[in-house]
Amino acid sequence: MMILVTIICYFAALLLIARITGHKGGSNAAFFKGENKSLWYVVSFGMIGASISGVTFVSVPGMIRGMDMTYMQTVFGFFFGYMVVAHVLLPLYYRLNLTSIYGYLGTRIGTHAYRTGSFFFLLSRMLGTAAKLYLVCLILHTYVFQEMHIPFWLIAVGSVALVWIYTHKSGIKTIVWTDTLQTFCLIAALIFIIYFTVQKLGLDFSGIIRTIQGSEHSRIFVFDDWISRQNFFKQFFSGIFIVIVMTGLDQDMMQKNLSCRNLREAKKNMYCYGFSFIPLNLLFLCLGILLIALAGQMQLELPAMNDDILPMFAAQGYLGKPVLILFTIGIIAAAFSNSDSALTAMTTSVCVDLLNTGKDSEEVACRKRKKVHFSLSVLLALFICLVEMLNNKSVIDAIYIIASYTYGPLLGMFAFGLFTRRQTNDRRVPLTAVASPLLCYVLDWWIFKETGYKFGYELLMLNGTLTFAGLMLMSKKEKTPKAP
């Protein structure tokens, strides 16, 4: 009952914020770009929660058992990826005054490239958001609502409905502030869970350091094994490109940046936000080591799935009742700060990129936006149920693999536009964008069969390279006007 009361109070706070931020009306300008009045430090803090997600909250501590602390190699790459976004992509988006970032592809390559970019974003974001919300719905179903005999599908529908309720009016204007609350809850939950774990272990600060350093899972860097998916160079450069595509080429993440008052403030947001990822992910990984140490001390058998390690400690009372409440708040805050902005970004992309609502009157455009927002909410709930039927692996790993296939064409198209001055066959861009991930899949299967080598996150770079190569093959030099 206490968990249920906590959830109700939490969503009541979100609805109150939505009411305050949306009381002056729900125009498209407010929904899409927050009327360009967002404070950069508020956006930066809120984006931490939107990027972390419920998947990170659960999966990263569990990663320790399978890959030690080598995930930090990817996190270090993230930081340099954020610098690329700040100095290459953000200036471009602000210079063109874009609402949807895929408008750049229309300006640079053509209409077919524009629509293809938007389609791949919608596909990737729908699948990724469904996978992230699925994990949270599953945990709530297993550890909170199962005893009440509430079915999984109803939890999924209810979760999406709550997101729709507090975002349908003012979109990004509301999300900037709800994400701030949710990020605060996420970080507070993480710190207090670590505190209760340390208390259970009976460690002081020096004891914490010794436990982490002495763990067999404390390895961070892998330089000596080129075949391993944990090799430093694979992880580091994959981290750079993951950020470039999953932040810089993602309407969801860029929409918040574009709501800042100017480019200078948007860059500040990116610096602060990018750096904060390093200590935060380090804390998640340290928590994983401490939980494994506690399991050894208490002689507990850890679950088969890595994603179940933290939920097991929280739900079965090994860390006390407060941790179950903190864990519930943490995963809900993380999941909803990610899904609310994703739903808003998908609505923006459909309205601006596919329906071209900019040509409509404000009244007609708002009416279309509301219909799209509701329809995407229904579709998201259906996809969560679909993921529930298909899931068979670590969710965070699945999300990065999905991104490798769906964001690769975006990477190739943007790279072609930014780093060449050639013109390509716009009508054939959709074919190239679809063929590249299919070819990647075949290559991954064939190389694994012949050599035993399995592609990891570097699949994203291969996919982008194939798309870039395809566009180059169809290209010709840009015509320059003759001098008079």
Automatic annotation (TrEMBL):
Primary location class: membrane
Single GO term (MF): symporter activity
Stretches of the chain forming a coiled coil according to its record: none
TM region(s), chain numbering: 39-58, 70-90, 126-144, 150-167, 174-196, 232-249, 270-295, 315-336, 372-392, 398-419, 431-448, 454-474
Record keywords: Cell membrane, Ion transport, Membrane, Sodium, Sodium transport, Transmembrane, Transmembrane helix, Transport
Membrane topology: Multi-pass membrane protein
GO CC annotation: plasma membrane
Keyword Repeat part of the UniProt annotation: no
CDD domains: SLC5sbd_NIS-like
UniProt keyword annotation of ATP-binding present: no
Compartments, record wording: Cell membrane
One BP term from GO: sodium ion transport
Pfam family, one: SSF
Protein family per UniProt: Belongs to the sodium:solute symporter (SSF) (TC 2.A.21) family.
PANTHER family xref list: INTEGRAL MEMBRANE TRANSPORT PROTEIN, SODIUM-COUPLED MONOCARBOXYLATE TRANSPORTER
Name this protein carries in UniProt: Solute:sodium symporter (SSS) family transporter
